[in-house]
Design a protein that fits this description.
The complex is a heterodimer of chains A (294) and B (374). Chain A is α/β, with parallel strands linked by helices. In chain A, 37% of the residues lie in helices and 14% in strands. Chain A has two domains: 8-152, Thiamin diphosphate (ThDP)-binding fold, Pyr/PP domains (Rossmann fold, 3-Layer(aba) Sandwich), CATH 3.40.50.970; 164-292, Rossmann fold. Chain A is globular. Chain B is built from eleven helices and twelve strands. The chains are: A alpha/beta (294), B alpha/beta (374).
């Protein structure tokens, strides 16, 4: 429906581009079974909200099988689709699943922000011999990004498990994934005018998380703000904070780490309500200033 | 004392094969069904007998080990249903694929895993077929995808394997098994729809042993004609206690799929002597009389033995010798399974991913780390 596979059916036909009936549990199981015989399927959920119907197949059939079989059966599959809030689609269609899938050993979970992220991570995910959940963002589908020559080349891949520093800074570390990365950069631009230089990290991968890049940054800036679209409890930011506490970077923090997240409510419909349920640029700026005590 | 010489039968005394009448299958959306006669050679009979007897004794040994608390957790035994997995295995090729649910020890053996590796997996040792990582419900081998714990989840998986078979074009089929309990799962109906739509070479097989855990089929299903539940998918109802009936039906079904006609459904009417699992005595929802009746009138191994002896394909002594050999094999396997060491702790983190460079896995606290190797 969102035309991410536009043109593929024309090019590759019925054998390789299959349009299933609306039976997520069934078709996800079929995709996982096909993966076990190395067909390398890419299984699309129209949005990740519908993946809940099939979540048993993603976790129990895909994620755990390599471990349970001591490596006898691999599941090279990609589950992809839009994740998180959109615009006015209300509570049942707006949930972010980064924390849910990021919780499970056996899965890899990636979350692209830019076009080069999307291309490089999708290629890497397909080539990976393991089940990868790729959490895209519907509102980002329409946003153009610059792509380098290298990024446009045929075999461009981005390593799974490696974060990218989108903007260098010295006063505070902003860690984010997916669409909020853009908001962080906007916030950084505003703050720069006030003399605050933010280092913006694009996680790119939720699991395995590149905490080393975050730690190195915190050692440099001494302040940490995490930004995500999902709910606060047990979220990506919560995990980052816990790991920072456990690691060497803790001693370099001059203030407690702070989280900016989606509001802790099911997503409402009315625009004013919805707008105030997702982290906005002003919320990030506020959090940075609180952390820096300015 | 002088030794008495007993004249023994030599092989020239036996028939090389015999033809048997087998029960006609009930048909759904099929003009013709499998043959009502089956030819069995002496070699085939001895092979079927030995295989079924091995599974029977292996399951009884598992019961024993479980009661001694050497096997823990879940243990779903297959004794009574041997004709199903053996009849199916001898009808298909090693290059075909099989997937089933958790009552999987018989299939694991039929697909080629030695008894000692099955028992050692049940006892959680490093010599287990999946190195102690899976246990009773998660055993795998080439072209055998388990061993699946979530009721019904294996059915879409099986259709997916069939989809890959069709894609790769090597004329392989996938046997996708489930029980009468799972037969009411929604995902199975989703799978029927897609398998039929895309003409997947999937043989759906319902092992109807009359009880889904403790619920009889009459209390669970509005229609207990499981072979018809595929609606637009043709089906047959098969006597699952007769290994020849299962074999002929499976040959028919796989031929149907290989011809590109799409999926087909087989209901195997069978029975389990044990309860649902080792924590179920199996007598609160059925009578001892019922169990005894099946044992005396329909036991698959006894049925085969009688056929072979009555048709001069084997002697009682010969089959007894096989029994002795099987017992010995099971004893040795059990010995291995109880003495083999547990997997080393260092392997705890292995095989989280496939084909992945080594990485570290967190243990119960941040200072305990395990290495994960693929």
């Amino acid at each position: 429906a969102l035309q991410i596979s536009r043109g593929l059916w024309k090019k590759y036909g019925d054998k390789r581009v299959i349009d299933p009936p609306i039976s997520e549990m069934g078709f996800t199981g079929i995709a996982v079974g096909a993966a076990m015989v190395w067909l390398r399927p890419v299984c699309e959920f129209m949005t990740f909200n519908f993946s809940m119907q099939a979540i048993d197949q993603v976790i129990n059939s895909a994620a755990k099988t390599c471990y349970m079989s001591a490596g006898a059966i691999a599941v090279p599959i990609v589950f992809r689709g839009p994740n998180g809030a959109s615009a006015g689609v209300a509570a049942q269609h707006s949930q972010c699943f980064a924390a849910w899938y990021g919780h499970c050993p056996g899965l890899k979970v990636v979350s692209p922000w830019s076009s080069e992220d999307a291309k490089g991570l999708l290629k890497a995910s397909i080539r990976d011999d393991n089940p990868v959940v790729m959490l895209e963002n519907e509102l980002l589908y329409g946003v153009p990004f610059e792509m380098s020559e290298q990024a446009q080349s045929k075999d461009f891949v981005i390593p799974i498990g490696k974060a990218k520093i989108e903007r260098q800074g010295t006063h505070v570390t902003l860690v984010s994934h997916s669409r909020p990365v853009g908001h962080c950069l906007e916030a950084a631009a505003v703050l720069a005018k006030e003399g605050v230089e933010c280092e913006v990290i694009n996680l790119r991968t939720i699991r395995p998380m590149d905490i080393e890049t975050v730690e190195a940054s915190v050692v440099k800036t001494n302040h940490l703000v995490t930004v995500e679209g999902g709910w606060p409890q047990f979220g990506v930011g919560a995990e980052i904070c816990a790991r920072i506490m456990e690691g060497s970077a803790f001693n370099y923090l001059d203030a407690p780490a702070v989280r900016v997240t989606g509001a802790d409510v099911p997503m409402p419909y009315a625009k004013i309500l919805e707008d105030n349920c997702i982290p906005q640029v002003k919320d990030i700026i506020f959090a940075v200033k609180k952390t820096l005590n300015i | 004392a002088s030794r008495v010489m007993v004249a023994s039968r030599n092989y020239a005394d036996f028939a090389s094969e015999a033809t048997f009448e087998i029960k006609k299958c009930d048909l759904h959306r099929l003009e013709e069904g499998p043959s009502t006669t089956a030819v069995m050679t002496r070699e085939e009979g001895l092979h079927y007998y030995k295989t079924m007897q091995t599974i029977r004794r292996m399951e009884l040994k598992s019961d024993q080990l479980y009661k001694q608390k050497i096997i823990r957790g879940f243990c779903h035994l297959y004794d009574g249903q041997e004709a199903c997995c053996v009849g199916l295995e001898v009808a298909i090729k090693p290059t075909d694929h099989v997937i089933t649910a958790y009552r999987a020890h018989g299939f694991t053996y039929a697909r080629g895993v030695p008894v000692r590796e099955i028992l050692a997996e049940l006892t959680g040792r490093k010599g287990g077929c999946v190195k102690g990582k899976g246990g009773s419900m998660h055993m795998y081998t080439k072209n055998f995808y388990g061993g699946n714990g979530i009721v019904g989840a294996q059915v879409p998986l099986g259709a997916g394997i069939a989809l890959a078979c069709k894609y790769f074009g090597k004329n392989e089929v996938c046997l996708t098994l489930y029980g009468d309990g799972a037969a009411n799962q929604g995902q199975i109906f989703e799978t029927y729809n897609m398998a039929a739509l895309w003409k997947l070479p999937c043989v759906f097989i319902c092992e109807n042993n009359r009880y889904g855990m403790g619920t009889s089929v009459e209390r669970a299903a509005a229609s207990t004609d499981y072979y018809k539940r595929g609606d637009f998918i043709p089906g047959l109802r098969v006597d699952g206690m007769d290994v020849l009936c299962v074999r002929e039906a499976a040959k028919f079904a796989t031929e149907y799929c290989r011809a590109g006609k799409g999926p087909i459904l087989m209901e195997l009417q069978t029975y389990r002597y044990h309860g649902h699992s080792m924590s179920d005595p199996g007598i609160s929802y059925r009578t001892r009389e019922e169990i005894q009746e099946v044992r005396s009138k329909s036991d698959p191994i006894t049925l085969l033995k009688d056929r072979m002896v009555n048709n001069n394909l084997a002697s009682i002594e010969e089959l007894k010798e096989i029994d002795v050999a099987v017992r010995k094999e099971i004893e040795e396997a059990a010995q291995f399974a109880t003495t083999d060491p547990e997997p080393p702790l260092e392997e705890l983190g292995n095989h989280i991913y496939f084909n992945e460079p080594p990485f570290e896995v967190r243990g119960p606290n941040q200072w305990i780390r395990y290495k994960s190797v693929s």
